[in-house]
Amino acid sequence: MIETDALTLARQIRRKEVSPVAVVDAVLHRIEALQPTVNAFITVTADAAREAARRAEAAVMAGEPLGQLHGVPFSVKDLLFTKGVRTTMGSFIFAEQVPGEDAVPVRRLREAGAILIGKTTTPEFGHKPLTDSPLFGVTRNPWDLSRTPGGSSGGAAAAVASGQGPLALGTDGGGSIRIPAACCGIVGLKPTLGRVPHVHQADLFSTSSYIGPMTRTVADAAACLDAIVGFDPGDPYSRPEPPDDPRGVEVRGLRLGWMPRVGNRLVDGETLAACEAAVRHLEGQGARVETVEEDFAAFEPIFLVFLQGGLAARIGSHMAKFGDRVAKSLRESVERGAGWSAVDWGHALGQRTVVFRRVQALFRRFDVLVSPTLSRPALAADHDPFQPITIGGEAAGSIRGAWYPYTFPFNLSGHPAVSLPCGWSADGLPIGLQIVGPWYGDRRVLALAAHLERERPCARPIPL
């Protein structure tokens, strides 16, 4: 049961082949078994989940109308508000915060019948691409406990990959859904800016943060997207759903921009081979593939102005009070952010416009862009995010410019991007492929991801 995907579970529940109570119990037992090793959850809402499961079962037996995800367990990254359930931001600063309302996507999943089972781990305020915090310790990759699950939605990815629920909501401020999806061998979608409402952010207007699904299958990600998209007046970028986002894709004639590098010098050989094999498979089916050379890695300093400056503005005033109860890497990020000036911020806004225009220019030539999600598989769980990474034993550069230069540019530009598994390294770690689409082309990228998932399946039984 813990290996069953969300849509299959929903279908089985609807047909009375399996009980929502049994499903929730199985997931809660799995969480209890893996929490000492994987450590994917900050808060587990066991009692509330079991009560919701009993109500879900009663609704099935009474023949009531059921939502698409009725009875399916889901988890929520602990950066997102959950009504009546503490939302810590992964930090002692907000360790006792209990919101009075749900984030919009959380509410919409509940309305679709899904059952909240808990809050997953995140580095404090999602500030880095690894998942650890003084509040809860280290979250580990279920495929290799010495490695990171990525971040900042690391707990969500580790949970989904290891059978601790088939569906999770993550957030993505620079790759924070796609990085852990690639590290843990699952599917993760960063939607178009505004398509999934994100109303509780401190800065709604220059945001680069997105809410999206994390699942074991593309179909589950698409079903979750269906449940959480749509206009909400609390998000200034929110719009009514577009009528022209096709749910299918024709590979023959598809104009595909292949980006093996985006200004980064090094790519792991196994990663490059696995991603290029997927691209050449599509080319063999009639896609028109052209290699693209764009130096998006050069925009790393601009991304850091938004990340570090935003952290300094939001939580800088808490540093003196909480001291060593805040991670060293967060303190350093806040210190660096306090050094950025208003001129730096204004320049970064202008450069974000440059990134958008460059990506838009690519979509005048291509229908989709494809790249590795990461330049190499998962780093060590204790990697210092301010230290260089290595690729093939060679120093490759900073963690953002050298490991995930493929992801953060599309946070700046607003385009939808999905990571899906496309292979495995020799030491058993997942490799992720990223597909990027034009604005509001979320279902197009999911359709191409689903095509590759069918044509080149690489899923393995859940670890541990």
Using brief descriptors, characterize the structure shown.
464 residues, alpha/beta, Amidase signature (AS) enzymes, 2 domains, two-stranded antiparallel ribbon, 15 helices, 15% strand, eleven-stranded mixed β-sheet
Give an account of the 3D structure.
36% of the residues lie in helices and 15% in strands. By secondary structure, it is an alpha/beta fold. Helix 2 packs antiparallel against helix 3 (46-61) and helix 5 (154-161) runs parallel beside helix 6. The protein is globular.
Concise description?
The protein has helices spanning 6-14, 20-34, 46-61, 104-111, 154-161, 178-184, 218-228, 269-284, 300-315, 319-322, 328-338, 342-362, 399-403, 408-413, 442-455; strands spanning 41-44, 73-77, 115-120, 132-133, 137-138, 167-172, 187-190, 210-215, 255-258, 288-291, 368-372, 389-391, 394-397, 417-424, 430-436.
Uncertain residue ranges:
none
User: In which order are the strands of the major sheet placed?
Assistant: 1-3-2-6-8-7-14-15-11-9-10
Largest sheet: 11 strands, mixed
CATH superfamily of the largest domain: Amidase signature (AS) domain
Helix content: 25-40%
Question: How far apart are the termini?
Answer: 15 Å
Tell me the number of helical segments per DSSP (H or I, 4 or more residues long): 15
Number of domains: 2
The succession of helices and strands, N to C, reads HHEHEHEEEHEHEEHEHEHHHHEEEHHEEH
- Output the structural class: alpha/beta
